[in-house]
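Let's practice the habit of predicting before peeking. Look at the sequence and jot down your guess about where helices and strands might fall. Then scroll down.
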Amino acid sequence: MHRYLHERKELLETAYDESVHLNQLVGNLLDMTKIEAGTLHLKTKPCELRDVIGVSLHLLKDKLEKRDIQMHIPRDLSDIFLDFTLMMRVLVNLIDNAMKYSAQDTPIVITAKLLANNVKIEVNDKGFGVPEEDMVHIFDKSYRAVKPR
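Done guessing? Here is the structure:
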């Protein structure tokens, strides 16, 4: 009986995790549709970048496990105007891709740099990268790089 309950719990956890992932995909698709239609309205306000990154990492905590995440953010970086929810989605997608396409024993590095009146945010990994010939497709909706063998 105990094994049955354990297996059932695992199945429910898997179903829940997949429903969360599906919800994120649907949200991303809805946002893409709004962007294409010109109806996506940004709700910008001053935000602490570390908070946005922290929430993004928290949403990925089950996938991150013991992954080495390094952050390099200037101490004097003040609040920046951004749409917290949309930026969080962008970071979740970038960090998730970095995890998928790089080895577990390599770090993921999140860096922020102040450039004039802008902030440049980078998510770097040690993955195989996008082949040069595929770069023309990088912003196609359904494009996915093929992992080298």
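How did you do? The first helix runs from residue 2 to 37.
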